[in-house]
């Protein structure tokens, strides 16, 4: 069993022992376009009716067709990481190009209560996960965590897809490229 030993953050211009700096790594990875999803879960332990929690993610991908598995990378010790450690059911809504405001709202650090963030966003509750599913998203998946893998300062959460929805929409996907939300031209 590994222990989490707190370390001070490395200044971004200093190289890691292997030689690459955080700035160099970030610059290289910014050139990889990624789709944007809103990962959601319901926390039944937060208040009398529980609370919905959401997190913008660009590190989300299909892992396997048999069984149907997806993976999302969440920042270690974040609220979502803590919740998904004890709540196995969650969902991901693949955001459309006109949903940039949703992505930005749920990606802020030091943000207000999740309850306020969800307040004016059209959502339905997933029948399987109980998590909010964003209205107007390109697709939604409801998942049950199969495995959690510690990877540096993130946790890789692998989920079995239990349900999907494909709303009718002509919109394109919201993408993230070179540090900005974009749409495909």
Summarize the structure.
By secondary structure, this protein is mainly beta. It has 4 helices and 12 strands, in the order αβββββαβααββββββ. 28% of the residues are buried.
Please outline the major beta sheet: 7 strands, antiparallel
**How many beta-strand elements?**
12
Approximate strand percentage: 35-45%
Strand adjacency order, main sheet: 3-2-6-9-10-5-4
Q: What percentage of residues falls in helices of 4 or more residues?
A: 10-25%
Low-confidence stretches: 1-8
Q: How many individual helices?
A: 4
Feature tags:
185 residues, mainly beta, seven-stranded antiparallel sheet, three-stranded antiparallel sheet, 4 helices, 15% helix, globular
Report on this structure.
With 185 residues, the protein is mostly beta strands. Helices cover 15% and strands 39% of the residues. The strands form three sheets. It has a seven-stranded antiparallel beta sheet. It has a three-stranded antiparallel beta sheet with strand order 1-11-12, with no helix packed on it. The protein has a two-stranded antiparallel sheet with strand order 7-8. A hairpin with a 2-residue loop joins strand 9 and strand 10 (154-165). The protein starts with 21 loop residues before the first helix and ends with a strand. The model is unreliable at 1-8 (pLDDT under 50).
